[in-house]
């Protein structure tokens, strides 16, 4: 079952159906990778805070504990608090993991070296919560591209100090589609993510900001990315990395 459509009203029931409840009861510790390197500003949506709050509550109601991860150059706690999560995170003592300042292991994927935080392996249940977007001059971003923000930026700088646009991990942008695909496959090898939750505010370069009319719960990043692209972004250019990942997963 690659994905199901839910809503905030029946999210807990559908998470049960998809198997998250039993995973939490058996394994206990949950990692949530979000998109919050910077806080929201107009036309730059981030992981939906309302859905994230529900997911954290669900985890603790089912006897689990959780951590939230993102690469935010040391500012993840500030970003979370500014986004309205301070009270909930303190209530449950949620661990905050800034990937940019974590120790890491090297993983080679298709000849390319990637660096994944060691702490990810400490969490046997891993959930990805991106925000879908396609901005002018940028790639469509959702589940697969989310992991660009899961690795320490200090390991992805160019040797000559050159800056590529505003990219904090410049080396990934030398061959962006291939690097996104390689990084995703490295993550699948080292610390695969088991659940993907998509929904909330998004951005399409042709229509601006909009809200999903559903919450999607999935276990296959590629299939869910393709579904979201076809439903909400079919008027945009499809990125090559989706095809590269599809070929690798055959």
Please give a structural write-up:
By secondary structure, this protein is α/β, with parallel strands linked by helices. It has one domain: Rossmann fold (3-Layer(aba) Sandwich). The chain has 8 helices and 12 strands. A 7-stranded mixed sheet has the order 1-12-9-7-2-3-4, sandwiched between helices. A 3-stranded mixed sheet has the order 8-10-11, with no helix packed on it. It has a two-stranded antiparallel ribbon with strand order 5-6. Helix 6 runs parallel beside helix 8 (240-248). It is globular, with a radius of gyration of 17 Å. The mean pLDDT is 96.
How would you write the strand order of the largest sheet? 1-12-9-7-2-3-4
At the fourth CATH level, what is the homologous superfamily? LarA, N-terminal domain
CATH architecture: 3-Layer(aba) Sandwich
Which shape, going by the Cα principal axes?
globular
Overall CATH class: Alpha Beta
Radius of gyration: 17 Å
Please give the share of residues in helix.
25-40%
**Termini separation (Å)?**
17 Å
User: How many helices?
Assistant: 8
Helix-and-strand structural type: alpha/beta
Strand content: 15-25%
Number of strands: 12
Q: How are helices and strands ordered from N to C?
A: EHHEHEHHEEEEEHEEEEHH
Average of pLDDT: 96
Largest sheet properties = 7 strands, mixed
Contiguous uncertain segments of 5+ residues: none
CATH topology: Rossmann fold
Supply the number of structural domains.
1
